[in-house]
TrEMBL record:
InterPro entries: NAD(P)-bd_dom_sf, SDR_fam. Its EC number is 1.1.1.184. GO terms for molecular function: carbonyl reductase (NADPH) activity. Keywords: NADP, Oxidoreductase. Pfam families: adh_short. Belongs to the short-chain dehydrogenases/reductases (SDR) family. This is Carbonyl reductase cbr. It comes from the Bacteria. It comes from Lactococcus lactis subsp. cremoris (strain MG1363). The keyword Isomerase does not apply.
Length: 261
C-alpha cells in the first residue's frame, strides 16, 4: 500500500504520514522544500516507517508534471496549502482580517496554490499513477461561516470543494471504483493559523486530527463526492434546497422545459 501526502513535512501532513506509516503504508512525503522534506523522511524512518521524499510545489504547475511518473498510489491526501496573506495591522496571522482588505494578487496567489495546484496534482496522477480503488482526500474548511471568513483562503477552498463534487460525480458517471472526498478537520494547531493546543477546547493537535481523518478513510464506507465534517456530519452538496427544487421540477415537467422570454 502506498500513499502520497502533500505538505507532509509538518503539521497535519506529517501526523498523517506517521499514522498511515504505522498502518503499513509506504509514505511518499510531498513537500516543496527538499531539505525539510528529507528531514521529515528521516524522522519517519526512525519510527520504522518506509518513507521517501517527493517534490510537490503547488506554486509550480510545470514541476507537478513530474508526478505522472509515480505508480501504484492507493491513497492521495491533498493537505498542502497556504493561508493567503492574512497579515494586517493587527499582526502577521490575523484570522479576522477584513474581507475588504484582500487584494487581487492575494486571491490570485492563493487560488493558484490551493486550487490550481491541487487540481494539477490530481490530474497528473489520475491517468496512470492511481490504483483502481484509490481514494483521494482533500483537506478543507467551511466556506460560509459568518464569523470566520479569511477571504483568499476560503475562496480557494470553495473552488477545491466544487472540484471534489465534480470529480466525484465524474467517477460515478464513469463507473470508476475510485473515490474523492474532503474532510473538514475543524480548528487545528498549525503554523498556518498560529493556533496552539489549549487556546480553546476546540483546538485539536495534528496527531488527533490525523487519527480523526484516518477514521473516515478506513470506515469501509463509500464517501465519494462528499465533504465530511470533523463530527461525522456529511455534506453531499452546497445547495440542498435548490437540488430538491430541481428534482421536483424534473419529476413534474420532465427533462425538457420551456423558457419564456
Amino acid at each position: 500500500m502506498k500513499t502520497l501526502i502533500t505538505g507532509a513535512n509538518k503539521g497535519i501532513g506529517f501526523a498523517l504520514a506517521q499514522n498511515l506509516g504505522h498502518r503499513g503504508y509506504e509514505v511518499l512525503v510531498g513537500a516543496r522544500n527538499e531539505t525539510r522534506g528529507q528531514e521529515a523522511v528521516e524522522k519517519l524512518k526512525a519510527e520504522g516507517i518506509n518513507a521517501e521524499f517527493v517534490k510537490v510545489d503547488l506554486d509550480d504547475l510545470n514541476q507537478l508534471t513530474s508526478l505522472s511518473a509515480l505508480t501504484d498510489i492507493d491513497l492521495l491526501i491533498n493537505n498542502a496549502g497556504i493561508s493567503g496573506n492574512i497579515h494586517s495591522d493587527k499582526g502577521h496571522l490575523d484570522m479576522e482580517k477584513s474581507a475588504f482588505d484582500y487584494s487581487n494578487s492575494d486571491l490570485e496567489e492563493t487560488i493558484k496554490t490551493n486550487f490550481l495546484g491541487t487540481h494539477a496534482v490530481i490530474t497528473e496522477l489520475l491517468p496512470h499513477s492511481l490504483t483502481e480503488n484509490a481514494k483521494i482526500i482533500n483537506i478543507t474548511v467551511p466556506v460560509s461561516q459568518e464569523y470566520w471568513m479569511p477571504l483568499a483562503y476560503v475562496t480557494s477552498k470553495a473552488a477545491q470543494n466544487a472540484m471534489t463534487f465534480a470529480f466525484g460525480h465524474q467517477f460515478k458517471k464513469d463507473k470508476s471504483q475510485k473515490q474523492i472526498f474532503a474532510v473538514m478537520p475543524g480548528a487545528v494547531a498549525t503554523d498556518l493559523n498560529g493556533a496552539k493546543v489549549g487556546d480553546s477546547p476546540f483546538v485539536k493537535s495534528p496527531e488527533e486530527t490525523a487519527q480523526m481523518i484516518s477514521k473516515f478513510i478506513f470506515d469501509n464506507k463509500n464517501h465519494n463526492a462528499q465533504i465530511i465534517n470533523f463530527d461525522g456530519t456529511i455534506y453531499d452538496n452546497y445547495e440542498p434546497g435548490l437540488r430538491n427544487k430541481v428534482i421536483k421540477d424534473v419529476a413534474k415537467n420532465g427533462l425538457k422545459r420551456k423558457f419564456k422570454k
